[in-house]
Amino acid sequence: MLIWVWVAVVVLALIILGSALASVAGRLPGLQRAAVKLQRRQDEAMRLQEGAAVLEQSALALQERADLVQERLETIKSGLGRGDR
C-alpha cells in the first residue's frame, strides 16, 4: 500500500513538472522574437554611436578650422591697421 502512495506522489510530481515545462516551452517563441528585436536595437544603437563619434570628430575639426580662420582674420586686420571694429 505504501508503494502506491509513493508512485502516486511521483506521478503527480511528473505531471506538475510536465505542465510547467509545457508552459515555458509555449513562451519560447515569444522570447526568441524579443531577443531578436533586442539584438537589432543593439546593432542600431552601435551604428548610431559610431555615427555620433564621426560627427563629433567632424565638429571638432570644423571648430579648429574656424579658430584658425579667426586668427588669420585678426592677423590680417592688425596688418592693415584697422583693429577690431
Key phrases:
single chain; 85 residues; mainly alpha; 1 helix
Give a description of the structure.
- The protein is built from 1 helix and no strands.
- With 85 residues, the protein is mostly helical.
- It has a domain at 45-85.
- The longest helix is centred in the middle third of the chain and has 79 residues, at 2-80.
End-to-end separation in angstroms reads 109 Å
Q: From the alpha-carbon coordinates, what is the Rg to the nearest angstrom?
A: 35 Å
Order of helices and strands: H
Shape: rod-shaped
SS strand fraction: under 5%
Mean pLDDT: 92
Identify low-pLDDT runs: none
What oligomeric arrangement do these chains adopt?
single chain
Which structural class fits the helix and strand makeup? mainly alpha
Question: How many extended strands?
Answer: 0
Q: Count helical runs.
A: 1
Biggest β-sheet strands, sense, barrel:
none
Helix content: over 70%
What is the topological layout?
Blueprint: H1 2-80
Characterize this entry briefly.
With 85 residues, the chain is an all-alpha fold.
